[in-house]
Amino acid sequence: MKSGPLPAAIIFDLDDTILAYGDPEECWRTVCSGFVSRVGVSSVDELLSAINKARDWYWGDLERHRRGRLVLSDTRRGIVAMAFSQLGINAPEVAIELADAYAEMREGGAHPFPGAIDTIQHFRDRGIRLGLVTNGGAEMQRGKIERFGLVPYFDCILIEGEFGAGKPDKSVFRHILEQLGVAAGDTWMVGDDLQRDIAGAQALGLFSIWVDWRDGGLPEPSPVQPDRIIRSIIELK
Q1: Domain tally for the chain?
Q2: Contact criterion met (CB below 8 Å) for 87 and 41
Q3: CA-CA distances (angstroms) from residue 161 to 54, 111, 150, 216?
Q4: Which of 9, 130, 150, 165 could cross-link with 169 by S-S, CB 3.0 to 4.6 Å?
Protein backbone atom coordinates (compact mmCIF):
# COMPACT_ATOMS: atom_id res chain seq x y z
CA MET A 1 0.00 0.00 0.00
CA LYS A 2 1.34 3.40 -0.91
CA SER A 3 -0.20 5.01 2.16
CA GLY A 4 1.51 2.74 4.72
CA PRO A 5 -0.19 0.35 7.14
CA LEU A 6 -3.62 1.92 6.65
CA PRO A 7 -5.24 2.79 3.31
CA ALA A 8 -6.65 6.10 2.18
CA ALA A 9 -10.04 4.43 1.79
CA ILE A 10 -11.87 1.19 2.51
CA ILE A 11 -14.81 -0.08 0.48
CA PHE A 12 -17.09 -2.56 2.23
CA ASP A 13 -19.61 -5.03 0.88
CA LEU A 14 -22.87 -5.21 2.85
CA ASP A 15 -24.42 -8.69 2.99
CA ASP A 16 -22.37 -11.37 4.78
CA THR A 17 -19.65 -8.78 5.37
CA ILE A 18 -21.29 -6.19 7.62
CA LEU A 19 -24.68 -7.87 8.00
CA ALA A 20 -25.02 -11.49 9.09
CA TYR A 21 -27.85 -13.80 8.06
CA GLY A 22 -26.69 -17.25 9.07
CA ASP A 23 -26.72 -20.34 6.89
CA PRO A 24 -29.36 -20.10 4.11
CA GLU A 25 -29.55 -23.90 3.99
CA GLU A 26 -30.72 -24.04 7.60
CA CYS A 27 -33.21 -21.27 6.96
CA TRP A 28 -34.68 -23.14 3.99
CA ARG A 29 -34.83 -26.35 6.05
CA THR A 30 -36.70 -24.63 8.87
CA VAL A 31 -39.24 -23.11 6.51
CA CYS A 32 -39.69 -26.33 4.51
CA SER A 33 -40.46 -28.26 7.68
CA GLY A 34 -43.67 -26.28 8.02
CA PHE A 35 -44.84 -27.08 4.49
CA VAL A 36 -44.13 -30.80 4.07
CA SER A 37 -47.61 -32.00 5.03
CA ARG A 38 -49.28 -29.26 2.99
CA VAL A 39 -47.60 -30.21 -0.29
CA GLY A 40 -47.70 -33.97 0.14
CA VAL A 41 -44.01 -34.85 -0.02
CA SER A 42 -42.52 -37.62 2.06
CA SER A 43 -39.94 -35.59 3.98
CA VAL A 44 -38.28 -32.24 4.53
CA ASP A 45 -35.21 -33.58 2.73
CA GLU A 46 -37.22 -34.32 -0.42
CA LEU A 47 -38.63 -30.80 -0.57
CA LEU A 48 -35.34 -29.18 0.38
CA SER A 49 -33.43 -31.19 -2.22
CA ALA A 50 -35.74 -29.99 -4.99
CA ILE A 51 -35.43 -26.38 -3.86
CA ASN A 52 -31.64 -26.65 -3.66
CA LYS A 53 -31.50 -28.12 -7.15
CA ALA A 54 -33.57 -25.22 -8.49
CA ARG A 55 -31.48 -22.70 -6.55
CA ASP A 56 -28.21 -24.11 -7.84
CA TRP A 57 -29.45 -24.06 -11.42
CA TYR A 58 -30.78 -20.53 -11.21
CA TRP A 59 -27.92 -18.84 -9.38
CA GLY A 60 -25.26 -20.80 -11.30
CA ASP A 61 -25.65 -18.60 -14.37
CA LEU A 62 -24.05 -15.14 -14.17
CA GLU A 63 -26.72 -13.38 -16.23
CA ARG A 64 -29.61 -15.00 -14.35
CA HIS A 65 -27.84 -14.07 -11.12
CA ARG A 66 -27.58 -10.44 -12.20
CA ARG A 67 -31.25 -10.23 -13.18
CA GLY A 68 -32.56 -12.28 -10.29
CA ARG A 69 -30.89 -10.41 -7.46
CA LEU A 70 -32.54 -7.18 -8.61
CA VAL A 71 -36.02 -8.68 -8.08
CA LEU A 72 -35.18 -11.11 -5.31
CA SER A 73 -38.71 -11.69 -4.05
CA ASP A 74 -39.95 -12.71 -7.49
CA THR A 75 -36.84 -14.82 -8.05
CA ARG A 76 -37.30 -16.78 -4.84
CA ARG A 77 -40.93 -17.42 -5.72
CA GLY A 78 -39.88 -18.65 -9.14
CA ILE A 79 -37.28 -20.98 -7.66
CA VAL A 80 -39.81 -22.58 -5.31
CA ALA A 81 -42.33 -22.88 -8.16
CA MET A 82 -39.65 -24.66 -10.20
CA ALA A 83 -38.99 -27.06 -7.32
CA PHE A 84 -42.71 -27.75 -6.98
CA SER A 85 -42.91 -28.50 -10.69
CA GLN A 86 -40.04 -31.00 -10.39
CA LEU A 87 -41.94 -32.74 -7.60
CA GLY A 88 -45.23 -32.75 -9.50
CA ILE A 89 -46.86 -30.35 -7.05
CA ASN A 90 -49.51 -28.03 -8.48
CA ALA A 91 -49.88 -25.41 -5.76
CA PRO A 92 -48.71 -22.00 -7.02
CA GLU A 93 -50.13 -20.07 -4.08
CA VAL A 94 -48.36 -22.34 -1.60
CA ALA A 95 -45.10 -21.88 -3.52
CA ILE A 96 -45.44 -18.13 -3.09
CA GLU A 97 -46.24 -18.56 0.59
CA LEU A 98 -43.20 -20.77 1.16
CA ALA A 99 -40.84 -18.41 -0.67
CA ASP A 100 -42.18 -15.42 1.24
CA ALA A 101 -41.84 -17.27 4.56
CA TYR A 102 -38.18 -17.89 3.74
CA ALA A 103 -37.66 -14.23 2.86
CA GLU A 104 -39.30 -13.10 6.09
CA MET A 105 -37.16 -15.41 8.20
CA ARG A 106 -33.89 -14.64 6.43
CA GLU A 107 -34.27 -10.88 6.08
CA GLY A 108 -35.92 -10.55 9.47
CA GLY A 109 -32.99 -12.32 11.09
CA ALA A 110 -30.39 -10.01 9.60
CA HIS A 111 -28.13 -8.24 12.08
CA PRO A 112 -24.68 -6.67 12.08
CA PHE A 113 -21.85 -9.09 12.77
CA PRO A 114 -20.52 -8.62 16.32
CA GLY A 115 -18.13 -5.68 16.34
CA ALA A 116 -18.82 -4.71 12.71
CA ILE A 117 -20.21 -1.24 13.41
CA ASP A 118 -17.48 -0.48 15.94
CA THR A 119 -14.88 -1.49 13.36
CA ILE A 120 -16.33 0.84 10.75
CA GLN A 121 -16.42 3.67 13.30
CA HIS A 122 -12.81 2.88 14.22
CA PHE A 123 -11.66 3.64 10.69
CA ARG A 124 -13.93 6.64 10.33
CA ASP A 125 -12.44 8.14 13.49
CA ARG A 126 -9.01 7.85 11.85
CA GLY A 127 -10.04 9.89 8.85
CA ILE A 128 -10.16 7.00 6.39
CA ARG A 129 -12.64 7.48 3.57
CA LEU A 130 -15.32 4.78 3.64
CA GLY A 131 -17.48 3.40 0.86
CA LEU A 132 -20.28 0.83 0.79
CA VAL A 133 -21.02 -1.14 -2.38
CA THR A 134 -23.85 -3.66 -2.50
CA ASN A 135 -25.47 -5.67 -5.27
CA GLY A 136 -29.21 -6.11 -5.35
CA GLY A 137 -32.45 -4.22 -5.80
CA ALA A 138 -32.66 -0.60 -4.74
CA GLU A 139 -35.60 -0.90 -2.36
CA MET A 140 -34.35 -3.96 -0.50
CA GLN A 141 -30.74 -2.86 -0.12
CA ARG A 142 -31.56 0.75 0.73
CA GLY A 143 -34.06 -0.52 3.29
CA LYS A 144 -31.40 -2.58 5.06
CA ILE A 145 -28.94 0.29 5.06
CA GLU A 146 -31.52 2.58 6.66
CA ARG A 147 -32.83 -0.09 9.03
CA PHE A 148 -29.40 -0.47 10.62
CA GLY A 149 -28.52 3.22 10.50
CA LEU A 150 -25.50 2.77 8.25
CA VAL A 151 -25.74 5.94 6.16
CA PRO A 152 -23.76 8.23 8.52
CA TYR A 153 -20.77 5.89 8.53
CA PHE A 154 -20.03 6.12 4.82
CA ASP A 155 -18.80 8.85 2.50
CA CYS A 156 -20.31 7.09 -0.51
CA ILE A 157 -22.94 4.36 -0.87
CA LEU A 158 -23.48 2.58 -4.18
CA ILE A 159 -26.43 0.22 -4.66
CA GLU A 160 -26.66 -1.80 -7.87
CA GLY A 161 -30.37 -1.12 -8.33
CA GLU A 162 -29.80 2.63 -8.06
CA PHE A 163 -26.54 2.87 -10.00
CA GLY A 164 -27.49 0.58 -12.87
CA ALA A 165 -24.58 -1.85 -12.60
CA GLY A 166 -23.22 -4.19 -9.96
CA LYS A 167 -20.01 -5.85 -8.89
CA PRO A 168 -17.80 -7.09 -10.53
CA ASP A 169 -18.43 -4.51 -13.27
CA LYS A 170 -15.42 -2.20 -13.44
CA SER A 171 -17.67 0.86 -13.70
CA VAL A 172 -18.85 0.22 -10.13
CA PHE A 173 -15.35 0.34 -8.69
CA ARG A 174 -14.28 3.24 -10.89
CA HIS A 175 -17.30 5.28 -9.79
CA ILE A 176 -16.88 4.77 -6.07
CA LEU A 177 -13.13 5.45 -6.27
CA GLU A 178 -13.93 8.70 -8.05
CA GLN A 179 -16.57 9.60 -5.46
CA LEU A 180 -14.16 8.87 -2.62
CA GLY A 181 -11.38 10.79 -4.34
CA VAL A 182 -8.81 8.03 -3.95
CA ALA A 183 -6.61 5.85 -6.14
CA ALA A 184 -7.17 2.11 -6.49
CA GLY A 185 -3.71 1.36 -5.10
CA ASP A 186 -4.52 3.23 -1.90
CA THR A 187 -7.81 1.43 -1.29
CA TRP A 188 -8.97 -1.80 0.34
CA MET A 189 -11.99 -3.75 -0.87
CA VAL A 190 -13.54 -5.95 1.82
CA GLY A 191 -16.18 -8.54 0.94
CA ASP A 192 -17.28 -12.17 1.10
CA ASP A 193 -17.82 -12.91 -2.60
CA LEU A 194 -14.67 -14.12 -4.33
CA GLN A 195 -15.84 -13.34 -7.85
CA ARG A 196 -17.80 -10.13 -7.37
CA ASP A 197 -15.94 -8.47 -4.50
CA ILE A 198 -12.42 -9.82 -4.73
CA ALA A 199 -11.76 -10.54 -8.42
CA GLY A 200 -13.75 -7.46 -9.43
CA ALA A 201 -11.67 -5.17 -7.24
CA GLN A 202 -8.35 -6.81 -8.08
CA ALA A 203 -9.01 -6.18 -11.77
CA LEU A 204 -8.61 -2.48 -11.01
CA GLY A 205 -5.70 -2.83 -8.60
CA LEU A 206 -7.44 -2.57 -5.22
CA PHE A 207 -6.03 -4.48 -2.25
CA SER A 208 -8.72 -7.11 -1.77
CA ILE A 209 -9.64 -8.73 1.55
CA TRP A 210 -11.90 -11.77 1.54
CA VAL A 211 -14.24 -12.27 4.50
CA ASP A 212 -14.42 -16.04 4.96
CA TRP A 213 -17.20 -15.86 7.55
CA ARG A 214 -18.00 -19.56 7.13
CA ASP A 215 -14.35 -20.41 7.93
CA GLY A 216 -14.33 -22.87 5.06
CA GLY A 217 -11.17 -21.67 3.33
CA LEU A 218 -10.69 -21.09 -0.36
CA PRO A 219 -12.31 -23.61 -2.70
CA GLU A 220 -9.95 -25.99 -4.47
CA PRO A 221 -8.90 -24.97 -6.99
CA SER A 222 -9.55 -21.24 -6.65
CA PRO A 223 -8.75 -19.00 -9.61
CA VAL A 224 -9.25 -16.01 -7.31
CA GLN A 225 -6.53 -15.41 -4.73
CA PRO A 226 -7.36 -12.67 -2.21
CA ASP A 227 -4.59 -10.41 -0.97
CA ARG A 228 -5.71 -11.21 2.56
CA ILE A 229 -8.22 -13.55 4.21
CA ILE A 230 -10.11 -12.77 7.43
CA ARG A 231 -13.08 -14.33 9.20
CA SER A 232 -14.57 -11.04 10.39
CA ILE A 233 -13.97 -7.39 9.64
CA ILE A 234 -13.01 -6.84 13.28
CA GLU A 235 -9.65 -8.37 12.34
CA LEU A 236 -8.92 -5.26 10.28
CA LYS A 237 -8.51 -3.04 13.35
Answers
A1: 2
A2: yes
A3: 24, 22, 18, 30
A4: 165
